[in-house]
Known about the structure:
Number of strands: 34
Largest sheet: 8 strands, mixed
CATH topology of the largest domain: Glutaconate Coenzyme A-transferase
Strand order of the largest sheet: 27-28-29-30-31-32-34-33
Number of domains: 3
CATH architecture of the largest domain: 3-Layer(aba) Sandwich
Number of helices: 21
Helix content: 25-40%
CATH superfamily of the largest domain: Acetyl-CoA hydrolase/transferase C-terminal domain
Amino acid sequence: MEYKNWLKQYCNGKxxxxxxxxxxxxxxxxxxxxxxxxxxxxxxxxxxxxxDLQDIMIYQMLSxxxxxxxxxxxxxxxxxxxxxxxxxxxxxxxxxxxxxxxxAYLSQIPKLFKSHRIGLDVALIQVGPPDNFGYCSxxxxxxxxxxxxxxxxxxxxxxxxxxxxxxxxxSLVHVDNIDYLIFHEEELLGGLTDKQDNFVAKRIGHYVxxxxxxxxxxxxxxxxxxxxxxxxxxGKKDLGVHTQLITDGFLPLFEKNVITNKKxxxxxxxxxxxxxxxxxxxxxxxxxxPFFNFCSSEFVNDPTVIAQNDNFISISSALEVDLTxxxxxxxxGYFFYSGIGDQVDFLRGSSMSKGGFSIIALPSTAQSGTVxxxxxxxxxxAGVATTRGDVNFVxxxxxxxxxxxxxxxxxxxxxxxIAHPKYREELxxxxxxxxxxxxxxxxxTRDDLMFLEAYKSTQKVRNGKIIEYRPLLPSDExxxxxxxxxxxxxxxxxxxxxxxxxxxxxxxxxxxxxxDYRRNMSIIGLVQKGGHKEVMAIGSYAESHSSSDLAEVAxxxxxxxxxxxxxxxxxxxxEKIALENKYRGFYATVLRENIAMISVFKKRYKDVxxxxxxxxxxxxxxxxxxxxxx
Length: 630
């Protein structure tokens, strides 16, 4: 319908100039403004220019345009800003105390308006032109905007033809529910744009991608790092999306059909979201696209709604994480930096989802590497947005820490292990002083263990199970212990040559003292059991005391996984690693009655040599065939 027709048919005197529209606002009013890239720029400018407006209190979730007035003393005398989230352009003003931050879960903000705990006199919003039935679209800003205008005494809307028309019942606003309309065409604000990938983002993206399975439904938090992580999901299949915010980072995944939403259990076939911030290309993609279902934050961020998505994975960022798992997202010390936002909503929703979990991703350091973001305790004044009971996985560029269901001791070791290498010993020392860990606990190696990623692999065995193999880490102490105690006495005897009864912390520490992942290496096999993975096999080699080019090799496989080729698989993996580290062969000490292990060695090495040892056991010598190095 042409503009002149809808002007006559629907608006019936409601259309006025922006100057006249803001003149309807009374002194002392409480004004809500639409969010982020959907904010009505023309109405904001007109409101600020009206010198008659005094003592105006402004509520907004994500504010961009007003950041340009933060050094204007006249503006600051006339307007008070209350923000639910501090955008990057607003941080300096927040540090200087020029705005007021309202900590609130995003899912709860609409209820603050509905209950009139936060009363609203006026709402300034931006919409697209009405259709033939008089319905306008909130477009890229549904989020808390819908609740804002529904609970305001007066609604003033900027009608902008550039606003995309988005699908979803919460996106539609009938002109009958708008008091005044001003027609003003202008470009929409832009959001996050692509930045060149850096070393840290690439490595974090690599680790996050390992946790995201095909068919999962994902949420990505707000910020540059979550934006960058999306690139590393490029190889996945049939992902679904239920998230607060859509950015340009999603576009390649839409275009390559990585995101299909086919496997979603809630709104299959559709992206569920409430906000969009990006480029014109993104806005054109979502315009009138039924692939997207724009809903209010009250719905999108409701943990009970989120939980209806099976295999739901929440991915968000943080400013710092302490060794017990507490997460700070909204402040740097006493300085408010961002906001609680949607993190807690999605973490709790993911924890209730069948097969769901959450990921907190952050660089290991800040301020050019001078400050660790994995800390012994949160900074003075830092807010705990996410409690230690809510956290599942934490990811930095140095690896993955799994905290769910683990005690403080294990959390310390998991998190110290993914801290920047230069801060690991310091963190372990601080944990000892707090009595979080054993006084004799060895710190994780200071080496960058990224090279261990090449040693990860999977094997499907005869019972249909998928076994994941990776190097053993200090944080595996309890899993290693549980593995030992799951073994039968005969299996233990074959491995240790005596009826070993105790596998204590002290024994584990003695084993770790020499581990360097080069001259000494251990690979564990893990199998899924319920919501966690348990160790069911381990293969190790250690440098021989008698010959520097030989390594002693040994294996233990749990009884229910024996005779499935697991020891042979581990032997092959360990040989490749040993060759990289200049070993020329393996030797092993084996009990005569351990026929299965001897058979594994003979099958692998044609020229195996077997001799009788001093104590009656067999000594097996196996030279490598060097053409296998490639």
